[in-house]
Amino acid sequence: MVVCVLYPRFELLAALGDRRALLTEPLALAPEAGGVQVVGEPSPAAEAFGVTAGMRVGEALGRCPELRLVPPDPEGVRALWGEALDRLEGIGAAAESDRAGQAFFAADGLRRLHGGHLEGVIAAARRALDRGVRMGAGPSRFCAYAAALRARPRRGAETVSAGAARGFLAPLPVGLLRTRAELAGMPELLERLGVRTLGELAALPAHALSERFGHPGLLALDLAHGRDTPLDPRRPSEPVYERLDLPEAASGPQLERALELLVARLLARPERRGRALRSVAIGARFVEGGTWRTRVTLRQASAEAGRLRLALWPRLAELPAPAESIGIEVEAFGPPAREQGRLLEERDSALAREGRIAEAVRQARQAAGTGAALRVMEVDPDSRVPERRNVLAPFPVEGPGGVGP
Question: What is the pTM of this model?
């Protein structure tokens, strides 16, 4: 059996923080800075006016003139959802989660740990999570999600047996297929063809769906029959994160220097353990509230500061609003950053000297900690405040050829 954990309006709740009492008013998530001008998750009061997620801002305000837009907080959403998944994994669950507020895990291997039955597994998961969570269980991921939609907080989980899965799904609308990204556009086409429920979809022949929709059509047919693809549990990430507070109205050279300092601190973290970086996320917290986050995947894993700055600076230069702080987080590591063999014999004494200096810095940090070797870096030489002119940054420890330790 697969268990679905569902948090309604998770992103809106994360953006509100301690102001959850505002949910009684017509609210909706504002568009992401620099993104498409559509609203995000609405509150129940806004839904009563017909406001839905993905609706244009002008149309949403036309339907509900009193609608208040809440700045989104993608960094807060990521942090809160990461904590929820950590608590879920604390009971032994291997959770799969493609988006915040929704997770799945297999319950069969947890029965002996929690009373020997499914109800014990669900009760343990509910104790580990917030009281407002909805939970459903079924023989597949899709069936468990449909069951969680029917469940109500604080009333237990909706459970669907394997034999009753097709009958449970039959009266549900085909719009439920939109929960799968690869099937997002199929419900509209099915409704135009007169197929409005999953039961009607399940009655269609497989060859007809394959001819009309290809592989997505066969996947939709499997979902309507209660079958689904295997779960793909997440791999817990290693938190390697650096954040830096910015002076007021920081821009241009100041932002570039701040990025250089963040990259230097990130590469000096002992958690990196000499590995190259494959994927890095850069985020910012705005002065007027809300956050911004974007992911940068490197074509080739690298631990060279110059390459990282070259990849991250164009994204940071697109910052849509003044920021009070920026941060960098490693999302995926690459292979160990070893010194590559050379085709020609080493003749450059400068490169050899850099290698000896890097080795000395590494030994000093191993003996006295990461703050043992620092360098003075100019940030804002024209500032009237002496503390803003220069900062101490970790001394770079790249060896010959620009390869990190």
Answer: 0.70
